[in-house]
Amino acid sequence: MSTTPSQNESREMLKWLTRNRRMLLDLYRNQYIAHNAYRLIAHSENLREVLALAEASGENFAIYLVPRYCASVQILPIRFRAVTRTDWQPNYYVKLKHRDIELSTAMLVDSGAELSLISLKVGQDLGYALADSESSLLAETIGGTVEYVIRNVEMTIDGHSFVAPTAWLQKDTGGEQLLLGREVVFDVFNIEFRQPDEQIIFTRRENS
Questions:
Q1: Domain count, the chain
Q2: Looking at residue 66, which CATH number applies to its domain?
Q3: How far is CA 207 from CA 6, 116, 178, 188, in A?
Q4: Of 61-65, 80-84, 203-207, which gets the smallest average pLDDT?
Q5: pTM for the full model?
């Protein structure tokens, strides 16, 4: 069973994720969950175990790593609370692939981030490792500095595949938010945000 949801399925899955966000934080912190628009299919801290259980279900599914706690994006740990607040976040399902491991997971579409970003745990579970004598880079953030290395990650959005440079964090920050940044992604797609409809529209650029 393909783990790549259709656009309609993705919208419904994201609605499910929004509705159940607090429950997931209460029960499944720091675990991968496999889910669809109707139910939680499997959960575990082991990515391969969740993928195997989800595949065995015979249903289309997506993977989400539940944060350890509810906080702002860790690389920019500051958030302003509006008077009128919505639980919707501009997440979109992206398939990440490295060798024989692939997962379709929600990533926060962030026009303020130059690079896409994956956490230490997600990178390790995808099978990434540091090369001998490879040095980490440092990024300045509001909360200090974070260590990262660059990996060229194969991504698929709405059936369109491409490779984007991605910052793989080298320390466990406690927050596991994945970011979809501008580099390559915003060259391949025109992206429209429709917050009142809780929807993001990706349109492939003709010349990309």
A1: 1
A2: 2.40.70.10
A3: 23, 22, 27, 8
A4: 80-84
A5: 0.75
